[in-house]
Structures are given as C-alpha cells and as structure tokens.
Request: fold
Amino acid sequence: MSLRVLASPTRLRVSCAALVLSLPALAGAADPTSTVTLGGGDYRSVELGKDVDIAAWAQRNDVSYIERLPVAGGGSIVRFKMDEGVWRARRDAMCTETGVMSCGTDFCQQYFVPSDEQAPAETAPASGPAPVAPPGTSEAITDKESSDKAAVPPEAGDARLELRLAEPETEAPDSDDVEAKVVGEDGAPQKGARVLLVPRAPDISSLFEQSGAGDTPAGTSLPGERNCRPPARSGSSLLTAITGNDGSFKFPKGSAQNIDRGCWEVITASACETRTRPLSDMAPEREPRHLLALMKRGKAGTPDQGQLQAAVQASGCKLLDATPLESIDKVLVRLELPEGNDDSGPALASLRVQPGIEAAQPEYRYRTLAQFNDPYAWMNYGARLTGAERLQSTATGEGVKIAVIDTGIDDAHPELSARITSKMDVTGYGFTPDRHGTAVAGLIAGEANNSVDAFGMAPHASLIAIKACEPETKQGIAARCWSSTIAKAIDAALKSDARIINMSLGGPRDPLIREMVDAAIAKSRLVIAAAGNGGPDARPPYPAEHPGVLAVTAVDAREQLYPAATRGDFVDVAAPGVEVPVPVPGSTYPGQLSGTSMAAAHVSGIAALIMSRDPKLAADATRAALESSAHDLGTPANDSVFGRGRVDACAAAQAATHDATLCAAETKPASPQ
Reply:
C-alpha cells in the first residue's frame, strides 16, 4: 500500500520498499513530483517542530538525512537510514529531545496512529500530527467526534479499508460539504481511521508539454479550466479528519469551498493500510465559481431581458452568456461568482426564487473515460468477439447518423475523413484533432478496406463530431467536459437528427443533463454511455446511471472484466474495451487504449449496423435487441458486473429485424496477443 503526502516545494509519494524513481525539477514546471520508497527496518522517521535547527539536530545525532518533508505548522519530517543496533541504542535520547514531536521505524505507522496509547512500543510519547488547515486558510480543523476523546484504530483483521460513500440522494446538488464513511472489508464501520485530503498527482505529460490542447481564444465563452492549477502555497498541504463511531468523517463546508474537487484525492489510513479515492467520488466535481440557470425562451428565442438582468443582479454574479436550447425550449444562462467568492449557496438560493428562473445549479464537470495510452498495438479483436465482423457483410451502418459527444476528432485522418459529415465546437476552445475523440470515432466508424490498419464497427455510418470536452494536455487522453457544454452538445445532436448519441464520458448526477437526456429519449434517440473506470467502489457515473441510457462496461479478449470498470446495477451490457487498437491524430499507425469509453464506442457502432438494416427501427427496439441477445457472462449475481452480458451483434440484428439469415457464417473470435 502507498501513502501519498504533499510537501512544499516537492511532493513525495511514500510507501514501504526501496527508492524507485525521482523526477528532477524541470525548468518552468511547478510542483515537480518525486517518488520515494522506504526500505526495510533501516529507515527511520522523526518529526521535528518548526523551531528546530534540522542541520544542528542531524549533526548532533550523527544523522545524514535522506529526505526532509515540510509539514503544516512549519515543522518537518526527517527521513534517514540507521542500523537497527545503533537505532536501539540512540532512540530514547533522540526521540525525547526538545522539539521532537514523534519518531519511529515506520513512517506510515507513526504518521497515521491517531493516539499515543496505540503508538508502537518504540515510539516516544507525542501528540502526533495536529489537525491542519485547508489550503488557503489558517483555520484549524478538528473532527467533532474526536475532539474530546482518543480515537481508536480498527482491529487488525479489518485493516484493509474501503470508502463507503454517503448516498448521493442525501446530498443537495449544490452542497459544499464533503462527507463519506470508512468501512472495513467486512463492511463494519472503522472508528478512528485517519483521513487526509491531498492534491492529486499531476499528469506526467503536463511536465513536458503545454498544459492545454491549444491557444486559448479570447472572450468569455470558455466553460472552465482545462486542468488543475498548482495548489496555493499560502496554506497548509494537508486537510485531515478522523472517523467517528459510525465510520463517518466530514470536511466542513468552509474547507471545501476553496478547492477544486477534481484536483484533490482522499486517503484513508489505519495501521498503515491505505486506500486512495478521488475527491470527486465523494462530492460532485464542479467548476469553481460557475453557476447555471434555465429560463423560458421568449418569442424571439431569448429570455425576458428584464427578468434576466434582475436575476443576475440579485445573485451578485457576472453574466457570461445565454444560449438557447431548442430541444427543450429553454435558454441556458451561465454565470460566474466574483473573484474570491467560492460559496455558491447564497447565489443559487437567490437565483431559484427570481421570476423567470426555472432551475439553477452549479456547473458540474465530466471526464472522458479512457485509460492506458500504450502505443503500437495490432490486436483488433472487438469486431470478431462481438460478431460485428460477420454482420458487416450485410450491414455497414450506411444511412445512420451518430453524434459523438467528446473531445475534438481528427477529421483529416484517412480512417475518418469520409465518415465525418459535420463538426462543431461548443467549448469555445476551438475544434481540435484530439486523441480521445479520434479514438472513439475510429472504433465506431473507422474506414474499412483502405489499407489503413484498423476499422470501425460501422464503417459506412455518418459521424457528427461535437466537441464538448477539452483535453488537459495536447497529446493526452484525459479531458474535462462541463454541464453547459454537454447540454449544448446534446441539443446540437438532436437538431442534427442523429439516431445514436455516443457519450464516452461521465460525471456527477446533474439535473440539466438529465433534462437533456430525457429530451433525447423522448425523441427516440439511442443514448449510449460509458459505465466508468472508477473501480468496484466508485459511484456510478452520469449519464450512464440514467435509466434510459444504455450503460456499457468493458471486457477483454477473454471476456474478463476490465479491472478498473465501475460496478453496479446500472450496467446494461459489456463490450470489448481492453487494449483495443484506435486511430491516433495525425497518424495512420494505431495506438492502444483501454476503458469503458472504448466499450461504449463498440456498442454505438454495432447499434448503427442494426439500424442500417431497418431505417424505421426505433431506439428502444434496438436497445431491447442488444440487451436480450447479449451473451451471458455469469450468474444473475454478476449482473452488477456485466449487466445482461457481452453484446452479440449478429444475435441482436436477428432479434431486431427478425431475419434469421443474417450472420450465417461463423467466425472464431480473435485470440489475444
């Protein structure tokens, strides 16, 4: 297990083995990351108070320290190597010196033991690390459950921890609180477990290239930040809490307001067993200071200007823009809180009571759902495993429009240039040839028989490329999307008469996106979404969780579940999504990606094959055929893992069209390499 700690100016990841990697500071790169490990019993850790002269202390104790980790309050944790015999002889004197807060053999154990009486026998009496203030503040945080009593760690048998999240329904959509539970492997609440909130490790690629996908256009139409800003150095590095009797912990409202939820992660620890989860799993990821409101469209297609101005003035916000959403006959209004004001509650409350305002909410953030960007793969097993390769002899997707709501797509790529019939950007960052969108588009409808390496499930389908997500780095897969951009993208897809809408992305439950998806379903559009890459404990992503959306999880060539796939009863079907070949912008040579994004793209292409056999086939009939004909991958107990099973293109087409002659020839699925 690893323990992640933020130090300033250098961030260190500490676990329990030998030095494995160190990234030197790069010119112009903020917060370079070093990776350090502790080895065996020869490494010691001592926490020194802020007034201790570290050099003098080290010389006095004949210590050549390896690393110094600054901690909140001005102190430091000093790591050094010392033989066991020397340590036993000197530890009592060293650990009782004035200014020594705590010391021990095991950094992890010492740092996370929450009370003196539970500390290792060799450890000198110490109060342990005090609760520290959230970034950008000086206010100390003290857990309400632990302020008047010693915390008790869980039993040794329950040391493996999980984060059991609070039910989403208990959290107001615009709540600033961060609240969850820590439970053991057996589901029992873990009292006295330490919980830390720390900045997420940066994407390594961001250290070597420009942070954004391109130059930022001028204007106010941009939906939000592309990536994480470095954490403020004026405050402390860590925010801590200790779980109460029921295993629950809470970071108070004041501490949650001034952080970007997409840029931090939570670590639970007890007896040096740790579990790390993104903060966005516990609290919906939002664009800081951005708010949205819906108003009725007037006769001219715009809202009542008097009501709009009154609402803006009452909220104290700046008006960014107002965009008609024709599919739901409303206007989407984007607003921004003043600089330095991170509390959205009062402004939202004011907006909701203003005449003409039908709904108000934060600007939620979504993310693309592909991982593991490993180049040069040749395995193209998806078409064979699903039977799409056999169906392509009688169906190619011709005449079916598919809206790809994603990042930008390389519309000059030889796999895609003939397939993209229209393109648009709703982010304000400009339409760009991005990796994630290009990969998804290639899996859906990459050209066949053109002497280029890969091909899509529906090689003659028409693609409507709608850029709603902005990559965090130029060559990266990770990208951010926003409530407003996704709403505009769905509206555009409905106006373009796309029969299928592919959304290989996910985020928190969102009233605005729910209304847009409901409109798409009401217009008989088949909405297909990725089931998420958050692992077994993650909250189901939206819109995959929406009951009207076909949620797709990922399996490999052996029909084994993608290990990072999110589980839950919301999963409908499974499709290939592990190490699949995809086109790369500016290149004909395929890359290789994994994730439920890729699985959703497979199903969108297969749905297009089926619909091309019957132009009048309804979306719900196509979905029913895909689900009812899926190849079962286990017992009913596995429905939360695989849904109805792995999609079978031939069986689904036969069920939808009642044509038993489709896919007469049998083809053996490809073997994994």
Observations:
- Residues 596-613 form the longest helix (18 residues).
- Residues 1-41, 108-161, 372-378, 667-673 have pLDDT under 50 and may be disordered.
- The longest strand covers residues 357-368.
